[in-house]
């Protein structure tokens, strides 16, 4: 392996690399492979001590000072010495009467649309906007193949504790993180292969004969490679959101299962497909290991959810079916690179079905991320995540032939959605119609789950042929 400070890619990183290699992206991992997030930090703000805390967090987490090396021997990672991250300050104080929340969202969107030098060490960019003397918004950006979005919440959590400890003149109270390279080493150890065989067989059986659900786009790809990603955001009010959460509890399932069921009925109305695969992203099986819960790195995993709702008569039936398929897939979740290797024929059929240039692959994920900071207080310092409702023209990259829905819970039961898609593949009118249709399906399904599917308002049609 060469230097002791070098180690190979994890299986999740291998897949991300192959994904960009196959979708025509430039620069190794696409033109803008970033992870990002924003937090409101309240209380006393000392620039010197805050920057010292940021240096402390870089020392604490090896991933923040890891670079990607590519040469004739292939792709690998290399740990660099600690150092201070780049910090940019901006005064956001506004006399026009706009709320601090609006200013924070606007600042986060603006930072996220910028360009970043992916060779920089540490691979952490920090933008700090002053709202007033006791209220600042801190935006963290990192190199996605090394640090995922879930991990940035850990970085912020630790930065707040390290900063508060410096203000109070005390020792920070934090558990010691396991280095990401240890996770990679264990993952490449083949001793667990026998234990994984039942999961391999599950996926071979589950995906046999599966077809991908794809959506027609308004425009074909430009032909000049990926043109960037937009992000359309919308929210569902707390009344309907809370009703959806209560229905999930009554069905003994997660909020994701109810929301995915509504999305699946929406797709049924758009495509007519009763049996098909929708892709989802999770925080990854590695992240769920207790010894990795405080580790910064890249753990995100992709896996297919095949849901056959041909015999479902009502929304309640769809939720029940989604619960069954989700629990089985979750139980057998494995890194996607291994899924491809062990169910190559089935995955090949799915990928072949995706190669229709006028169509896009839908994905749906929820952020049940326990590492997302909602509220944190350490000493006199408070911290809360910025949840965005404002759409943006330029967002973090996804593949050109994908459309990804992400949902997170708001503090009062509100549901906040982000839809990422290629900038030039869908018209705004289509995006608006998708949102309205999903909202109607969710409302009808939650308020009267035993209504026949044929009577539900899944009225959107994207001119796709229906199954016979």
Give structural notes:
- Strand 5 (86-91), helix 3 (100-112) and strand 6 (124-132) form a beta-alpha-beta unit.
- This protein has 12 helices and 17 strands.
- With 468 residues, it is an alpha+beta fold.
- The chain is globular and about 65 Å long.
- The chain has helices at 11-22, 47-60, 100-112, 149-168, 180-188, 193-206, 238-250, 255-271, 315-331, 336-342, 344-354, 428-447, and strands spanning 6-8, 34-42, 66-71, 74-79, 86-91, 124-132, 135-143, 215-216, 229-236, 275-282, 301-308, 359-366, 376-378, 381-385, 392-395, 402-409, 415-422.
- Helices cover 36% and strands 24% of the residues.
- It folds into 2 domains: 6-181, Chloramphenicol acetyltransferase-like domain (Chloramphenicol Acetyltransferase, 2-Layer Sandwich); 193-370 and 387-455, Nonribosomal peptide synthetase, condensation domain (Chloramphenicol Acetyltransferase, 2-Layer Sandwich), CATH 3.30.559.30.
